[in-house]
Amino acid sequence: MYLEQCVIKRANNALVAADENGETALPIATIAVLMLGPGTTITHDAVVLASDTGAIIVWAGEQGVRHYCSGSALTGSTRLLEQQARLVSNERSRLMVARRMYAMRFPGEDLSHTTMRQLLGMEGTRVAALYTAEAKRNDIQWHGRKWDDRGGAVNIALSTANSCLYGVVHAAITALGCSPALGFVHCHNRRSFLFDIADLYKAEYSIPLAFRLHACTPSLVDGIARRRMRDMMQDGRLLERCVHDVSTLLSEEPDNEDNCSVWTGGQRYGKAGQSWAPS
Protein backbone atom coordinates (compact mmCIF):
# COMPACT_ATOMS: atom_id res chain seq x y z
CA MET A 1 0.00 0.00 0.00
CA TYR A 2 1.26 3.48 -0.93
CA LEU A 3 0.35 6.62 1.06
CA GLU A 4 1.32 10.27 0.84
CA GLN A 5 0.33 13.62 2.37
CA CYS A 6 -1.17 12.14 5.55
CA VAL A 7 -0.55 11.27 9.19
CA ILE A 8 -0.52 7.58 10.08
CA LYS A 9 -1.33 6.67 13.67
CA ARG A 10 -2.47 3.76 15.78
CA ALA A 11 -6.06 3.41 16.96
CA ASN A 12 -6.24 0.44 19.35
CA ASN A 13 -5.04 -2.52 17.25
CA ALA A 14 -5.50 -0.81 13.89
CA LEU A 15 -3.84 1.90 11.84
CA VAL A 16 -5.57 4.94 10.43
CA ALA A 17 -4.38 7.48 7.86
CA ALA A 18 -5.61 11.00 8.53
CA ASP A 19 -5.65 13.84 6.01
CA GLU A 20 -7.81 16.86 5.20
CA ASN A 21 -10.64 14.55 4.10
CA GLY A 22 -10.81 12.65 7.39
CA GLU A 23 -9.53 9.28 8.62
CA THR A 24 -9.22 6.03 6.68
CA ALA A 25 -8.68 2.65 8.33
CA LEU A 26 -5.74 0.62 7.00
CA PRO A 27 -5.96 -3.20 6.82
CA ILE A 28 -2.53 -3.58 8.39
CA ALA A 29 -2.91 -7.33 8.95
CA THR A 30 -3.08 -7.89 5.19
CA ILE A 31 -0.46 -5.32 4.10
CA ALA A 32 2.91 -6.70 2.99
CA VAL A 33 4.66 -3.39 2.30
CA LEU A 34 3.58 0.05 3.55
CA MET A 35 5.23 2.63 1.31
CA LEU A 36 5.32 6.17 2.69
CA GLY A 37 5.63 8.88 0.07
CA PRO A 38 6.12 12.66 0.33
CA GLY A 39 4.29 14.46 3.12
CA THR A 40 3.71 11.45 5.37
CA THR A 41 4.16 11.34 9.13
CA ILE A 42 3.93 8.14 11.15
CA THR A 43 3.77 7.77 14.94
CA HIS A 44 5.96 5.50 17.04
CA ASP A 45 2.97 3.35 18.06
CA ALA A 46 2.01 2.89 14.41
CA VAL A 47 5.51 1.65 13.56
CA VAL A 48 5.39 -0.82 16.47
CA LEU A 49 2.06 -2.24 15.27
CA ALA A 50 3.27 -2.54 11.68
CA SER A 51 6.36 -4.40 12.86
CA ASP A 52 4.30 -6.76 15.04
CA THR A 53 2.08 -7.71 12.10
CA GLY A 54 5.05 -8.35 9.79
CA ALA A 55 4.61 -5.35 7.47
CA ILE A 56 7.72 -3.67 6.13
CA ILE A 57 7.73 0.15 6.10
CA VAL A 58 9.51 1.79 3.18
CA TRP A 59 10.16 5.54 2.96
CA ALA A 60 9.93 6.20 -0.75
CA GLY A 61 9.60 8.86 -3.42
CA GLU A 62 6.37 9.70 -5.21
CA GLN A 63 4.41 6.50 -5.96
CA GLY A 64 7.32 4.46 -4.63
CA VAL A 65 9.69 5.22 -7.49
CA ARG A 66 12.65 5.79 -5.14
CA HIS A 67 13.73 3.81 -2.09
CA TYR A 68 15.25 6.00 0.63
CA CYS A 69 15.24 3.61 3.59
CA SER A 70 13.16 0.85 5.14
CA GLY A 71 12.26 -0.86 8.39
CA SER A 72 12.28 -4.53 9.29
CA ALA A 73 11.89 -7.22 6.67
CA LEU A 74 8.52 -8.62 5.75
CA THR A 75 9.57 -12.08 6.86
CA GLY A 76 10.89 -13.00 10.28
CA SER A 77 12.69 -15.97 8.74
CA THR A 78 16.25 -15.81 7.40
CA ARG A 79 15.91 -18.91 5.20
CA LEU A 80 15.80 -16.99 1.92
CA LEU A 81 18.80 -14.87 2.95
CA GLU A 82 20.72 -18.00 3.96
CA GLN A 83 19.79 -19.61 0.65
CA GLN A 84 21.02 -16.52 -1.21
CA ALA A 85 24.33 -16.64 0.67
CA ARG A 86 24.77 -20.38 -0.03
CA LEU A 87 24.01 -20.00 -3.73
CA VAL A 88 26.31 -17.03 -4.28
CA SER A 89 29.20 -18.64 -2.35
CA ASN A 90 29.49 -21.65 -4.67
CA GLU A 91 30.63 -21.15 -8.27
CA ARG A 92 28.40 -23.88 -9.66
CA SER A 93 25.21 -22.71 -7.91
CA ARG A 94 26.03 -19.08 -8.66
CA LEU A 95 26.21 -19.88 -12.37
CA MET A 96 22.94 -21.84 -12.07
CA VAL A 97 21.12 -18.78 -10.70
CA ALA A 98 22.72 -16.54 -13.34
CA ARG A 99 21.41 -18.91 -16.02
CA ARG A 100 17.95 -18.73 -14.47
CA MET A 101 18.09 -14.95 -14.67
CA TYR A 102 19.12 -14.95 -18.32
CA ALA A 103 16.48 -17.57 -19.11
CA MET A 104 13.86 -15.15 -17.76
CA ARG A 105 15.25 -12.40 -19.99
CA PHE A 106 15.78 -14.53 -23.10
CA PRO A 107 13.03 -17.19 -23.10
CA GLY A 108 13.39 -20.08 -25.49
CA GLU A 109 17.20 -20.14 -25.37
CA ASP A 110 19.07 -23.27 -24.25
CA LEU A 111 21.42 -21.96 -21.56
CA SER A 112 22.12 -25.26 -19.82
CA HIS A 113 25.77 -25.41 -20.89
CA THR A 114 26.65 -21.72 -21.27
CA THR A 115 29.54 -20.21 -19.35
CA MET A 116 29.35 -16.88 -17.55
CA ARG A 117 31.39 -15.20 -20.29
CA GLN A 118 28.99 -16.54 -22.91
CA LEU A 119 26.02 -15.25 -20.92
CA LEU A 120 27.59 -11.80 -20.68
CA GLY A 121 28.33 -11.81 -24.40
CA MET A 122 24.76 -12.84 -25.16
CA GLU A 123 23.48 -10.04 -22.95
CA GLY A 124 25.63 -7.42 -24.66
CA THR A 125 24.46 -8.51 -28.11
CA ARG A 126 20.78 -8.64 -27.14
CA VAL A 127 20.79 -5.27 -25.36
CA ALA A 128 22.57 -3.56 -28.27
CA ALA A 129 20.01 -5.06 -30.65
CA LEU A 130 17.20 -3.85 -28.41
CA TYR A 131 18.54 -0.29 -28.44
CA THR A 132 18.83 -0.42 -32.24
CA ALA A 133 15.30 -1.78 -32.63
CA GLU A 134 13.81 0.89 -30.36
CA ALA A 135 15.68 3.63 -32.22
CA LYS A 136 14.35 2.31 -35.53
CA ARG A 137 10.82 2.01 -34.15
CA ASN A 138 10.90 5.65 -33.06
CA ASP A 139 12.73 6.81 -36.22
CA ILE A 140 15.74 8.33 -34.46
CA GLN A 141 19.52 7.98 -34.59
CA TRP A 142 21.09 6.14 -31.66
CA HIS A 143 24.71 6.95 -30.78
CA GLY A 144 25.15 4.78 -27.72
CA ARG A 145 24.56 4.96 -23.98
CA LYS A 146 25.84 8.07 -22.20
CA TRP A 147 25.47 8.96 -18.52
CA ASP A 148 25.47 12.76 -18.64
CA ASP A 149 23.17 15.51 -19.89
CA ARG A 150 25.01 15.62 -23.22
CA GLY A 151 23.46 12.28 -24.13
CA GLY A 152 20.15 13.88 -25.05
CA ALA A 153 16.60 13.13 -23.99
CA VAL A 154 16.79 9.35 -24.45
CA ASN A 155 19.86 8.91 -22.25
CA ILE A 156 18.46 11.21 -19.57
CA ALA A 157 15.17 9.31 -19.61
CA LEU A 158 17.03 5.98 -19.38
CA SER A 159 18.91 7.09 -16.28
CA THR A 160 15.76 8.42 -14.64
CA ALA A 161 13.60 5.40 -15.49
CA ASN A 162 16.27 2.98 -14.27
CA SER A 163 16.52 4.91 -11.00
CA CYS A 164 12.77 4.49 -10.50
CA LEU A 165 13.06 0.80 -11.29
CA TYR A 166 15.85 0.38 -8.74
CA GLY A 167 13.62 1.86 -6.03
CA VAL A 168 10.85 -0.69 -6.50
CA VAL A 169 13.29 -3.61 -6.80
CA HIS A 170 15.09 -2.48 -3.64
CA ALA A 171 11.79 -2.45 -1.76
CA ALA A 172 10.99 -6.00 -2.90
CA ILE A 173 14.41 -7.38 -1.99
CA THR A 174 14.29 -5.74 1.43
CA ALA A 175 10.77 -7.01 2.07
CA LEU A 176 11.92 -10.59 1.51
CA GLY A 177 14.83 -10.22 3.91
CA CYS A 178 17.42 -10.74 1.16
CA SER A 179 20.68 -8.85 0.84
CA PRO A 180 20.87 -6.22 -1.93
CA ALA A 181 24.67 -6.67 -1.89
CA LEU A 182 24.96 -10.40 -2.70
CA GLY A 183 24.68 -10.40 -6.47
CA PHE A 184 25.09 -13.31 -8.88
CA VAL A 185 26.02 -11.42 -12.06
CA HIS A 186 27.00 -8.08 -10.54
CA CYS A 187 29.42 -7.93 -7.60
CA HIS A 188 31.58 -5.67 -5.41
CA ASN A 189 28.76 -3.17 -4.87
CA ARG A 190 26.23 -2.82 -2.06
CA ARG A 191 23.44 -2.92 -4.68
CA SER A 192 24.74 -5.83 -6.78
CA PHE A 193 21.68 -8.10 -6.35
CA LEU A 194 19.43 -5.10 -6.95
CA PHE A 195 21.11 -4.56 -10.33
CA ASP A 196 20.74 -8.27 -11.14
CA ILE A 197 16.99 -8.20 -10.54
CA ALA A 198 16.37 -4.80 -12.15
CA ASP A 199 17.96 -6.06 -15.37
CA LEU A 200 15.09 -8.55 -15.67
CA TYR A 201 12.65 -5.70 -16.38
CA LYS A 202 14.56 -2.99 -18.26
CA ALA A 203 13.68 -4.34 -21.70
CA GLU A 204 10.01 -4.18 -20.78
CA TYR A 205 9.90 -0.90 -18.86
CA SER A 206 12.71 1.64 -18.88
CA ILE A 207 14.25 1.12 -22.34
CA PRO A 208 11.05 1.37 -24.44
CA LEU A 209 9.84 4.31 -22.34
CA ALA A 210 13.08 6.24 -22.78
CA PHE A 211 13.00 5.95 -26.57
CA ARG A 212 9.35 7.03 -26.67
CA LEU A 213 10.41 10.25 -24.92
CA HIS A 214 13.06 11.14 -27.53
CA ALA A 215 11.23 14.30 -28.61
CA CYS A 216 10.99 15.76 -25.10
CA THR A 217 12.97 18.82 -24.11
CA PRO A 218 16.03 17.52 -22.19
CA SER A 219 15.36 19.86 -19.26
CA LEU A 220 11.82 18.44 -18.85
CA VAL A 221 12.34 14.76 -19.65
CA ASP A 222 13.45 13.81 -16.13
CA GLY A 223 10.10 14.63 -14.53
CA ILE A 224 8.10 13.17 -17.41
CA ALA A 225 10.06 9.90 -17.33
CA ARG A 226 9.61 9.60 -13.57
CA ARG A 227 5.84 10.01 -13.74
CA ARG A 228 5.44 7.68 -16.74
CA MET A 229 7.62 5.03 -15.10
CA ARG A 230 5.64 5.34 -11.87
CA ASP A 231 2.38 4.70 -13.70
CA MET A 232 3.79 1.81 -15.74
CA MET A 233 5.14 0.00 -12.69
CA GLN A 234 1.94 0.57 -10.76
CA ASP A 235 -0.26 -0.68 -13.62
CA GLY A 236 2.01 -3.69 -14.17
CA ARG A 237 2.03 -4.57 -10.44
CA LEU A 238 5.80 -4.75 -10.69
CA LEU A 239 6.40 -4.91 -6.93
CA GLU A 240 4.38 -8.13 -6.61
CA ARG A 241 6.02 -9.59 -9.70
CA CYS A 242 9.46 -8.76 -8.37
CA VAL A 243 8.77 -10.49 -5.04
CA HIS A 244 7.64 -13.60 -6.92
CA ASP A 245 10.66 -13.60 -9.25
CA VAL A 246 13.22 -13.20 -6.45
CA SER A 247 11.58 -16.01 -4.50
CA THR A 248 11.58 -18.24 -7.58
CA LEU A 249 15.23 -17.56 -8.36
CA LEU A 250 16.42 -18.33 -4.83
CA SER A 251 14.02 -20.94 -3.58
CA GLU A 252 11.34 -23.23 -4.94
CA GLU A 253 9.04 -22.41 -2.04
CA PRO A 254 9.45 -18.89 -0.57
CA ASP A 255 9.32 -18.98 3.22
CA ASN A 256 7.61 -16.33 5.32
CA GLU A 257 7.28 -18.16 8.63
CA ASP A 258 8.43 -16.30 11.74
CA ASN A 259 10.24 -19.29 13.19
CA CYS A 260 13.68 -19.90 14.65
CA SER A 261 15.92 -22.96 14.68
CA VAL A 262 19.27 -23.91 16.20
CA TRP A 263 22.12 -25.38 14.17
CA THR A 264 23.09 -28.82 15.47
CA GLY A 265 25.98 -29.48 13.09
CA GLY A 266 26.36 -30.34 9.42
CA GLN A 267 23.06 -29.80 7.61
CA ARG A 268 21.00 -30.58 10.71
CA TYR A 269 18.76 -28.12 12.55
CA GLY A 270 16.64 -28.42 15.65
CA LYS A 271 13.81 -26.52 17.28
CA ALA A 272 14.75 -23.40 19.23
CA GLY A 273 13.22 -22.50 22.57
CA GLN A 274 13.74 -25.90 24.18
CA SER A 275 16.40 -27.44 26.39
CA TRP A 276 19.14 -29.41 24.68
CA ALA A 277 20.73 -30.58 27.92
CA PRO A 278 21.54 -34.32 27.99
CA SER A 279 18.74 -36.24 29.66
Automatic annotation (TrEMBL):
E.C. no: 3.1.-.-
Domain of life: Bacteria
Family annotation (HAMAP family): Cas1
Co-factor requirement: Mg(2+); Mn(2+)
High-level lineage: Bacteria, Bacillati, Actinomycetota, Actinomycetes, Bifidobacteriales
Entries under InterPro entries matching the protein: Cas1 (IPR050646), CRISPR-assoc_Cas1 (IPR002729), CRISPR-assoc_Cas1_C (IPR042206), CRISPR-assoc_Cas1_ECOLI (IPR019851), CRISPR-assoc_Cas1_N (IPR042211)
Alphabetical list of PANTHER family matching this protein: CRISPR-ASSOCIATED ENDONUCLEASE CAS1, CRISPR-ASSOCIATED ENDONUCLEASE CAS1 1
Assigned keywords, A-Z: Antiviral defense, DNA-binding, Endonuclease, Hydrolase, Magnesium, Manganese, Metal-binding, Nuclease
GO biological process entries: defense response to virus; maintenance of CRISPR repeat elements
EC class name: hydrolase
Family according to the record: Belongs to the CRISPR-associated endonuclease Cas1 family.
Function: CRISPR (clustered regularly interspaced short palindromic repeat), is an adaptive immune system that provides protection against mobile genetic elements (viruses, transposable elements and conjugative plasmids). CRISPR clusters contain spacers, sequences complementary to antecedent mobile elements, and target invading nucleic acids. CRISPR clusters are transcribed and processed into CRISPR RNA (crRNA). Acts as a dsDNA endonuclease. Involved in the integration of spacer DNA into the CRISPR cassette.
Gene name in the database record: cas1_1
GO MF term list: DNA binding; DNA endonuclease activity; hydrolase activity; metal ion binding
Residues engaged in binding Mn(2+): 123, 186, 199
Identification of the protein by name: CRISPR-associated endonuclease Cas1
One Pfam family here: Cas_Cas1
Species of provenance: Bifidobacterium longum subsp. longum 1-6B
Gene3D superfamilies in the cross-refs: CRISPR-associated endonuclease Cas1, C-terminal domain, CRISPR-associated endonuclease Cas1, N-terminal domain
Oligomer status and interactors: Homodimer, forms a heterotetramer with a Cas2 homodimer.
